[in-house]
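Annex B. Sample input.
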Amino acid sequence: MQIINGTNLPRAKLENQTAIRRIIYHYGPILRSEIVTRLSLTLPTITTTVNNLIAQGYVRELENTLTSEKKLGRKPSLIDIVADRNYFLGIEMRSSLRNLCIVDYRGKILCSVSNQDSCDDFKANMKQTAHMAANLIKDSGLSKSRLAGIGFCLPGATNSRQKSFRKGSQPVWEDNRIQNYLSEFLSYNGPITIVNNGIARAYGALLFHKDLLKKSSSFAYVFISSGISCPLMDTSIHYHGKIWGEGEAGHMVLNPNGPLCYCGNHGCFDVLSGEYSVIQKCTEAIQNDQAPVLRQLCANPGQPKILEILLAQEKGDETVCRILQDAVFYIGIAISNIENFVHPQTILIECRFFENKQNYDKLLEVIHNSLYTSNNVDIHLLSPDEFSGAKGAAAVAIDNNLDLYIE
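Annex B, continued. Sample output.
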């Protein structure tokens, strides 16, 4: 049976402050009167809450330069967040890399560190990541008392009810084990949020790429790396972002007669279009003397890199072109399926394949030919950024922080 909470005074104060902070965060600089209009709260309620936030240093008044109207008296001031009031640590951990950054409320990176040594043992990886985090906080020179949250993201299937993660055949790691490990190693008692690295990037887009989302009430974030994820975000609910599902698009079966995936199925999106799959196919092509241009470009022909593969495509290596065009074809089919079924208003894509224009042109062609309707799809390419996952994890921590009550 669903339990519906009533509203008492403490809960009302919390809900009002949270709503006001979110309005200021997402729409600031903003007039008090605009906050009143958006939330249907009284001006005294808005004024009392805003004044308290100003006194605590979370928001500030700015001179109103947005209007040229000449009126007697003082112009109403604008309200905006104080971006450097607190800072947040974002961590992305994978078996092949560890990226960490410290950001302010607006996502400005204050300092960062990256390590791309392979480490398949989860506990050893956690230890190395925590050590890097401790050193980054120390070297930043920022007061630890201003660290308002830590966001941690990693790839793999998630179980939101049990708060656990699984990557392939690796053992399950629960949220509380990760949180306890970080808390103890960093001597940190504040909030720690843990999400899938695709979901983290969606929150990063919500908070730090508002210019791309414009007035979209929903969007899909297609993230293609060694694996593939596509979380769907609903942004229409009380100025919060709501993720629908876990975003594990990588195991959507696109070709039942396709190659075997590690999950046991055939023709999964991951094995058709993921970077790891493309690298494997290009490695086999080099070994079979079918990719002469790529072989010449590779520093290590036994381990071609994505940037080398893309350069070989630009230089006309026929086998590499075919491998990438096949991968892009299935990306287009998957995006068309998502668009036909869910119809998000905006689709954001982070994928290194599309640094080559011919791949993007192929993608648009496949999507255009596969959509059920002829409606234009609002697609934006995001420049691949090694810290997008870490920044996204920090964004989740910021989003969590906006819900905390400030006395």
